[in-house]
Amino acid sequence: MEIEVAALRELSSGKLPESYDIRKLFEVSLLDEAAVALRVELLKSQSQSQIATQSHSNDHTAPGGNPKSDETQPEPSPSPASTPPPSDDAGNEPTPTPVPTPTPPPSPPTEPELEARLAQLQLVRDQLRLQILELPAEKRKELVEAEEKRQRILIEQAEAARARAEAQTARQEAELARQSALEEALLAKSLAEKKIAEERARVEQMRGTLATLRVQLAGERKRHADQMAGALEKLDKYRQQVADVRTDTQTADATYDQIVASLTLGRSQLEQALNALGKDPKIPTYVPQIDLTDPMFDPVAEERAKLTATTTEVEAEIAAMIAEERDAQWTRVTELAGDVAPLNGLRLELLPLLSKDKRKDVLGLTGAGFAQFWREVRQIDLMTRFYVRSTARKFKVAISDPQRLIDLKSSSWIVVQLLGLVVVILVLGRRFDEVFHQLRGHVLSSKRDKNVQLLLERWLRFLQGVLPSISLLIFFYLAFHVLKAEENRELRFVKVFFLAYAWYRIVVAVAHQFIVGAAQARRVVLTPELNERIRTSVRLTARYIFPVVVFLIVSERILGRGYLYGLVVKFAWLGAFPIAGILIHRWRPSITRSYLEGFPDGRLAEPMRRVKDKPSGIFVVTAAVFPVIYRGVRLAFNDSLSRFKYTRKAFAYLFRKQLEQHADSAGQSEDFSEQLPEELKAAFNQGPAPAELRIDHFPMLPKVAETIRSWHEGGSTGAVVVVGESGVGKSTWLAELARQVEIPG
């Protein structure tokens, strides 16, 4: 248990124990969040119970009890007469020197002392376990990945040593076999025997060459494993340094430079390893010098069969070595790619701890900043190449491996789920479209306040336009859930692009429907050309924002929020200028018309009229954009408030109060109306208006009502069609007709 406690102490300080697998220190997996949470609660209760028990035991210890185990008994004073003093050469009696009495060995600990010591170790072990289990999930994952990598390195080192020893033995055996074959060739009695013996010598020579090559490859594997071990040790050291750096900016700056140097070296090694993937391994091939199917070798069929078997073994060994070398190359690429990510994470973790000048130099538009920019661009390129090759390799292995094909067939349930999901989304999408059409018709035909009707109808139309994009987003979420994308790195990467595209569609649909709804609320005639111009303008803006957002997401996943991420965030707004120029050019006639209608006497009105059709007028139109936007927002806000009855009453009340205050300030609160002309006072009469001044709210209603009455009295039937644009009052007209005439059902 003392070994476990020592290992846990090293692990809690951020260092991997040298000779202990950290996965064996815990009863649960450090990556299982549910199991970790349960284990934390159990350890807390156990620790509290152990502390209470030890406290209770100490309170009841007798004063004259056994001394503590770590106390030492006083050594007895040596006896002067224990040994006779020697005499010198002159015969004088020397001064006696005391000889120490040997200290008796310590008495073994008693059983209660052992139990107390064991209980103390258990308490310390549980507290250290609890400290590590309460680390954030990312930190625990880093520890597990580091331990797994260390175990892989140990296995690789052992395998390399074993392969080297076996290859050396095989080389010696091949050399002996070659010498034996050459001797047989010299003693051959026929030409056929001689040629077969010589060919067997060539085969054995090839076997020896392959064995020599295996020794070299084993040495390279050992060297690569040692490099990985050194990289892991260096990463462990950097983690400790980053954990220790808090306020010492000088140490933080030095550690940052060391990490950047290690990252640069790691990227160079990764690039070399990626370039080596496309090259064929340097494994020699064997080409027979004789044709064993020649009839001349029929008398020596037994020797021919042995040579054929040996040749087959050598060819199989060549193929195996090629496959092993490619696997070793890919393993090296994977390990190097895995080394870059944690180093970059430590670099980002150090950024806030750097000195002010260092941080300004690293993140600013300086030489160091641009150097970091190109380093991050290089890493994005390397990791993209790695992910592409990794995906292609996994797909190739899945197709070529029969066992994976069986697994693929067994996963047909996933395919069925995806197909079912597609069908459900399509059917529900079409059904919801019909439902929204019916709801809009029901709202417009209901006997409600007209403003409420229009408001509900616009919201339903808005939702109907956005629904397809929302359905696409839901489909992507469910599809990647069925595919278990969180368990696959490549699928997680692809999921980012699909979800970003779905959100892009939603943003475009929402913006388009919002602008169209605002235009229709202002009674703007929405022609197909105008609708398409609105849609293309929204898409133009979204198509600039979409790649920027995707790049930021990918950059954060590969590099974190480093120099490149901050650079894009700082300067992404520059893209708004060309987009604004394109939009102003497209909407120039509409902007000009809106400004002249809203501000006929404005400062820009006269210049706008002069350069209305000239190229230089684009500058005047650009200056008029903000007043037009302000006027449109103000009118839309006022129009939205005016749709509600109580808001209209409030506006009327405020307007009346303003008039009264104005009248009071002018001193005309009582008799100002007497000064008005008689014609104007007559127009403000509260009585009913004359017949010639009345506005016909229900055109042709008396005629239609009389026609319906005649149909009813004569027993005949007919049809009346009410035609008009949305919102002109068709439902109100029909309601008045129903009130005046009893229409038979």
Architecture overview:
This protein has 745 residues and is mainly α. The protein folds into three domains: 137-408, no CATH class; 409-647, no CATH class; 697-740, no CATH class. The protein has 23 helices and no strands. The protein has helices at 2-12, 33-59, 111-133, 137-186, 191-244, 249-277, 301-350, 356-363, 367-400, 402-410, 412-445, 450-482, 489-521, 528-559, 563-571, 576-586, 588-598, 605-610, 617-642, 645-666, 678-683, 701-714, 730-740. Helix 9 (367-400) crosses helix 10, helix 11 (412-445) packs antiparallel against helix 12 (450-482) and helix 14 (528-559) runs antiparallel to helix 16.
| Shape summary | elongated
Residue-averaged pLDDT: 76
What is the terminal-to-terminal distance? 93 Å
Radius of gyration over alpha carbons? 45 Å
Q: Number of DSSP helices?
A: 23
The string of secondary-structure elements, in order, is HHHHHHHHHHHHHHHHHHHHHHH
Number of structurally distinct domains: 3
